[in-house]
Give the backbone structure.
Amino acid sequence: MKVRILELDDLHIKFILKGANPAFANALRRIMIAEVPSMAIDEVVFLENTSVLYDEIIAHRLALIPLRTDLESYNLPEECQCGGTGCSLCQVRLFLDIEAVDEPITVYSGHLKSEDPKVVPVKDNIPIVKLARGQKLVLEAYARLGRGKDHAKWSPVSACAYKYKPIIKINTELCNNCGLCAEICPKNVFEMVEGKIKVVNELSCSLCRACEKVCEKEAIRILGDDTTFIFNVETVGSLPPEKVVEEASKILEKKALKFIDALSSLTKEYKEGES
Amino acid sequence: MIIPVRCFTCGALIADKWEEFVRRVRRGEPPGKVLDELGVKRYCCRRMLLSHVELIDEILKFEEIRLERRPSS
């Protein structure tokens, strides 16, 4: 199996996975969405809320704010030595205390004060609520690690998908270079070069087959290579994109090892029963 | 009521882009261009900003009126 990175920035990674199969690619995708842990607010204690939004709505908005996640320093509550009751190893407290005195104000995610300077909202300008003069909001929030399968707020990715690597075959004997395929292609895969159709953008093909349909000579064949995958992963900012892929692979490895363990102990039991 | 924190469909963060979006569109820039420059690519996220009405501003006016009408003691 080979990996080649095509694009990488703060929030987004695009890579090719070569020599895999659909089952493996899908396992990786599903783990990235549902099982890579990240930090999110999970419990909110309201001390005062005279704003126009209900406590529940504000708690929900707070939960959806992505927090910078430090996977090395925190445990999942169910795996923590405190047994999930909440200690400094598995939860972070955040505070908010704000009042609109002279004029209406907007409360932003930047107003949240965190116990741990490493676990803070990824953006400071996310509006939480607006307060009219005299309104007040005082609360205490607890952020914990969690997984996307329990609540989408814990999913470190937004868009996370793969496609088969496109294979575009042009039969040069049949092709009359009419250019219809170049015209209809939504991804501009084809280009006319000196009167001849050429594939210039093979990877951006979405396998829609519009070119196949429009070609009167049936000279184009579009195929997907089901051993090579183009992954597109976009994170919400809680973890860097390359870290999400890395963590997902580690989780998959752990699952496979657990399976081997279970299998070997079962075969041992079976053989002992036989003799 | 107030701009949703995330896109309903894909879960991408959008609330942080709202204020810049409104400011620039009010100044007369075409909304599509502003969305492109803010890096809002997918149409699920684009509709979140495009179709949003910030009703909380209207609600806050009632609170302000109530304050003004309150007899000063």
About this structure: Chain A touches chain B at residues 52-53, 57, 61, 64-66, 104, 122-123, 125-127, 129-135, 152, 155, 157-159, 234, 236-237 (CB under 8 Å).
